[in-house]
Write a structure and sequence with these properties.
Blueprint: H1 2-10, E1 25-27, E2 40-45, E3 48-54, E4 64-68, H2 86-94, E5 103-107, H3 114-121, H4 127-149, E6 154-158, H5 161-174, E7 183-187, E8 194-196, E9 219-221, E10 225-227, E11 246-248, E12 262-269, E13 293-307, E14 310-317, E15 334-335, E16 338-339, H6 354-370
Parallel strand pairs: 2-13, 4-5, 4-6, 6-7, 7-9, 10-14
Antiparallel strand pairs: 1-5, 2-3, 8-11, 12-13, 13-14, 15-16
Helix pairs in contact: 1-3, 4-5
Length: 375
């Protein structure tokens, strides 16, 4: 492991991207790319597979979405190169569906790699790789504001490392500045946002609150997912604050502010090769899925839990052995033949409530259009 850490740190980072060049964006409005390609999706109901259709791509959305993808790169070194592979897959699974609700912007950046996670566990320092990755995200953001935004409202969307990048961006470049008035939402699950216990502000952000009611704007939606009855253990990387008096914020993505169980509108990538507790999923007794993506409504529910330093979204599978659809979903992170307890259902953070999230953004666009604001 120490040799791995040394090898990673010795690798040279790729040259910085040039965001004035469209080639360094995975998604931009008005062109053919991952976000403008409809996703073939099948409804999965208790009575089996339903109709198959394609996700929407709108051309006149009144809101922008700026997305930063998670840790997916398996490139050599601590930071990824600028030849996207896993990155495109992440955009397709996590972000492309938002093209039905907003104009989509997704910069390619020199993200910290999967290998760096192991290197950090072996004692490597992440500060320089983080600075490289965040420097790219900040440069892309500045290009977006200068060239594309034109005073439009925007939503920030990220996951895991991407949420960490956006946390930093909000704290350093947005809150307390005039641009904060244009930020309608920040949807940043999969990385801890800390708040004082019982509070909605303070901690990670000085003035940006955690969303606490449906329809609220100018706030942050955040959660880390854990399977029901599997709580974050002390020291968990997600869902547990090491700081006394602080907790990890949780917004129920189906109904902000709720602490009850809420049914989730989910979109699952049925062709995923990620390991799942109990083995591969049989999505329906009818046989293999007829499309790469499946939509389930109410198969899983989520409930925000805050208990002292713990804060997380508890995920319940509403299993019915008598119906035709699966009684299991995945989400845990597997490594070396076991699942990492302190990561929870990290891989399901966006999939489990994705339909709810798209509707949140769509409502912003509809409301703005209803007010007669020019697009």
């Amino acid at each position: 492991m120490m040799l791995l850490a040394a090898a990673l740190l010795a690798a040279t980072a790729a040259n910085a991207p040039d965001y004035s060049n469209g080639a360094d964006w995975l998604c931009l409005p008005g062109r053919a790319d991952t976000c403008s390609t409809p996703l073939k999706t099948t409804a999965l109901n208790p009575n089996g597979y339903g109709s198959t259709g394609q996700s929407q791509v709108v051309k006149d959305a009144a809101v922008d979405c700026f997305y930063v993808y998670p840790t997916v790169s398996r490139d050599d070194g601590t930071n990824s190169d600028l030849a996207p592979a896993e990155e495109k897959a992440a955009v397709e699974v996590q972000f492309a569906r938002f093209a039905g609700a907003c104009r989509t912007y997704a910069p390619l950046y020199r993200s910290m790699t999967v290998g760096l996670i192991s290197a950090v566990a072996a004692g490597a320092d992440y500060k320089a790789p983080f600075a490289t990755a965040y420097g790219d995200v900040r440069a892309a953001w500045q290009e977006y504001l200068a060239k594309y935004n034109q005073g439009r409202p925007f939503v920030l969307i990220g996951h895991s490392q991407g949420s960490w990048m956006l946390q930093t961006l909000i704290a350093q470049e947005i809150e307390g500045r005039p641009i904060a008035k244009q930020m309608k939402l920040a949807i940043i699950p999969g990385f801890n946002v800390l708040v004082p216990q019982g509070k909605l502000t303070g901690g990670t952000f000085k003035s940006t609150p955690v969303c606490s009611r449906p329809g609220e704007t100018g706030c942050v939606m955040t959660w880390t997912s854990y399977r029901e009855k599997n709580v974050p253990p002390p020291g968990a990387i997600f869902g547990y604050s090491e700081l006394a008096g602080m907790t990890v914020a949780c917004t129920n993505p189906a109904r902000p502010g709720s602490t009850a169980w809420e049914p989730l509108d989910s979109y699952w990538f049925a062709l995923s090769k990620q390991p799942v507790p109990g083995g591969p999923i049989t999505w329906s007794t009818e046989g293999p899925p007829p499309s790469p993506f499946l939509r389930t409504e109410g198969l899983v529910s989520g409930r925000c839990v805050n208990e002292g330093q713990r804060g997380y979204l508890s995920i319940r599978t509403n299993a019915d052995p008598k119906d035709m659809r699966t009684d299991r979903v995945g989400g845990e992170v597997g490594a070396l033949g076991f699942f990492i307890p302190g990561w929870g259902m990290h891989l399901a953070d966006i999939s489990a409530p994705q339909g709810d999230l798209v509707r949140e953004v769509e409502a912003l666009s509809v409301a703005r259009s209803a007010r007669g604001v020019a697009r």
